[in-house]
Amino acid sequence: MSRHPLILATALVAGLAGPLAVSHAADNEFAEPLTALAQGQLREVAQNPTLIAAIMAQNQVSAGYDAAKIDELDKQWRAEVDAASKPMIDATLANEASKYLVGVQAESAGLFTEIFATDAVGLNVAQSTVTSDYWQGDEDKFTLSFGAGADAVALGEVEQDESTQTFQSQVSITITDPATGAPIGSITAGVDLSML
């Protein structure tokens, strides 16, 4: 994918008084519909009980991971992406939360090009397609959503898919515990901007 000059970098921080403030490039024609998608349809996806249960279960395990363990898991995932044997990737894609996201993507009729959810340290929990890496914790999609609080929305750069000549952007939001409102993970969707 090549970078489009228009950059969408928006973070809505939890705790803002009054209407939500959105900062973006003045010529950003996609910020409004992408933010509406994040606050509406993507928020509904993020509240699915199967997805929330999977994230909370993984948080119990990954809360004890140090940087070396996270790096080890990420390296294993990256090695499996192009390998014939993919036990870690296959296990993630086979879980019920991933099956749910596959269904959401299919039902979107091309709007969503990918959807993946992470735990509280940024490790993949569920996904509709294979991601290039397992740890999202060092990327804006995670730090500007989960890292910014419960109501945060992060819009990625607009990128052109050379094969389809379509423009896409990633939209990320924080996933919260429905009982407490505490952030537990994040969800990112790739969006075909021609479908907005």
Could you write a compact summary of the structure shown?
Helix content is 35%, strand content 21%.
How many helices does DSSP assign? 6
CATH class: Alpha Beta
CATH architecture: 2-Layer Sandwich
The geometry reads as globular
The CATH topology assignment is: Beta-Lactamase
Q: Estimate the helix proportion, in percent.
A: 25-40%
* Major sheet attributes: 8 strands, antiparallel
Task: Explain what this protein looks like in three dimensions.
With 196 residues, this protein is α+β, with helices and mostly antiparallel strands. It has a single domain (2-14, 29-195), classed as PAS domain (Beta-Lactamase, 2-Layer Sandwich). It is built from six helices and eight strands. Strands 1, 2, 3, 4, 5, 6, 7 and 8 form an eight-stranded antiparallel sheet that branches. Helix 2 crosses helix 5 (96-107).
